[in-house]
Design goal:
By secondary structure, this protein is mainly alpha-helical. It is elongated.
Length: 127
């Protein structure tokens, strides 16, 4: 079984613990060792970036809609409802942040890999 993440036992688990992450060996391969990503790894990183965009868009639109609904509520809203909405917004914000970090790592790895290719004479105007 291929499990793409590990649980950190020092914290309370939440939704972000279930999100996949960029493999650390891929980050080390490019960042620490000056390597390049394979075509398969490049496709994976590009797909991860697109997946983040696809996942974040409805979450952010939904958060905005909740704000509009609360701002325009005409009836008295129970405090418990506000608490529940607050926890939902906090949880979704954590999810968006975790996904955005994953997208940033993917973009950084692709950029570093491309720089490594140019430095090694595998592309660019001077090769």
């Amino acid at each position: 079984m291929n499990i793409p993440f590990q649980f950190n036992k020092d914290k309370v688990l939440d939704i972000t613990d279930l999100l996949p992450t960029i493999p650390l060996d891929l980050l080390a391969k490019v960042g620490c060792y000056g390597g390049e990503v394979s075509k398969e790894e490049e496709d994976f990183l590009k797909s991860a970036g697109r997946a983040v965009e696809n996942a974040n868009q409805p979450v952010l639109k939904g958060l905005s809609a909740i704000g509009v609904l609360l701002a325009n509520a005409n009836e008295e809203i129970p405090l418990e409802t506000f608490n529940d909405v607050g926890w939902l917004i906090q949880s979704l914000s954590d999810q968006v942040l975790a996904l955005s970090n994953m997208q940033g790592f993917a973009e950084s790895i692709l950029e570093a890999s491309n720089k490594n290719k140019i430095l090694k004479g595998n592309g660019g105007l001077m090769s």
